[in-house]
Every structure is written in structure tokens, then in C-alpha cells.
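Why do we care about 3D structure at all? Because function follows from shape, and shape follows, mostly, from sequence. That is the central idea of this module. The next example makes it concrete: a single protein chain, its amino acid sequence, and then its structure expressed as C-alpha cells.
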Amino acid sequence: MRLRRHRDLELTAAASVLCAVVAVAVPVEAISILAAVPLVLVLPGYAVTAAAFGSRRLTGPQLLALSLGTSLSVLVLGSLLLNYVPGGVREASWAPLLVVLVLAACEAAARRREGPSEWTGLPALPRLSGSDRLLAIGGGVALLAALVLAWTVLPAKHALGYTELWMLPTVSQDQPGMRIGVVSQEQDPVSYEVVLESSQSRSVVLSGLVLKPGDSRVINVPIIPSKSTAPGKRLTAYLYRSDRLQVPYRRVTAYVPSPSRQ
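And the structure:
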């Protein structure tokens, strides 16, 4: 492997592996974010830029601009690629993709640097005055704080939740039926009651249904055909909150399907 001949490429490859492991494996969110920042915004662009320019040496501002811009381009193209891969765009798929890309680009850059090369490693940092150093440190702190805040889930005490109610007909071999689904996206656990109503009857399908935020429940209700529930007749499902049984919370309407015939 030619990376050992080029210190900057060796460090870039090692840093990508380390950042990927920390970003995925460490359960502390702030540490994961700090590890993900260079893996996403710096390392892929630096490796691709080094591979593209080979032995040509770039100045610090040029290298920084190309690294950030190329990293953003990698994010866009990588999202399109992972969107068609089983599992989609997730941390478990993003980290290996970026690591493979960085390692491949570093190897390509090392091959292009064979022979006489003007690339002696990472460019020297520009010398800054006292006030410029304070501004640079403040900007870095502000950037890290913005990234941490963007990935932090904040409480929303006054946010309004909602509940989804749906009903679809299902036809078995002998008898029609209905599938009623309840999905809770409320802020707190809520107790529900489900009522099914036809033109001539009304019955409680399920009471005392307690769902936590994010929970769902599907109820299979067989329909016995009669004059009031003959095929083609309309059924209405009502969802009530147990603390407000006088007012329907959700309502949905469907039609009784015809039973299948052999």
C-alpha cells in the first residue's frame, strides 16, 4: 500500500476509519456529531482533491475550499446512491460508504504522486494575529455549537400531537370484513375507544385502547352481511378519546365489500 509514503494521505485514511467508528458506535450524541463532522465535511473532499490534483501543490485556501465543496458534492451524490440501496440513507450505510470512498481516493492520490512530487504534505497554516486567532476560535466554537444544536432533540411542551384513523375493506374467502387502524402521534399516552356504526346499528369495537406516542394498532372486524350491512352499504368508524367520550376525535367512512365467490 502506497499510503505510507505520504503522511497526509495516511492520516486522512486513518482519521476516516476512526471517525466512522466513533460516529456509529459511541452512544453519546455530542461525541458522535464531533466525529461525524470531519468524516462528512472534510475528509472525503480532501482525499478526492488529492487524487484529482496528484503531485500539484495547492495553497491552503484553495485546498480548504475544494475540500469543503467536494465533500458537499459527495454528500449529494452519496444520498442519491444510497436511496436505491436496501436500507436507504442511514448512519450504518453512510459511514462505510464514506470510508470506502476516502480509502479509494487516498490510494488513487498516492499512485498519482509516484515519482518527483511537489506535494510535501499538508500546507502550513497561515500565521494569524491575536485578534484573528480569537475570531477563528470563536467561529469554530460557533460552528460546533450550531452542529450540536442541530442534532439535539429539544423538548416541545406546547407542540400539538395528532392521531391517525383509517379503515379499509378486507375480503376473506367466505366473509367480508374491515381493518381499522389507529396511529398515535400525541405527546403523551392516550386511551381511545373505537366505535363502528352502520345505518341501523352502532357498536363499540374496542375500548380502553392505550397507545404511547408512536404506537399503532390494527383491528380486524368481521362483517356479517345483513339488511343493514349488505355489500355496498356504508360503515363509519369513530375514534373517541376516553377522557372525551361525548365528542368524536376522528371519523372515517368505508363501504362493505362483497364476499368473494368460488
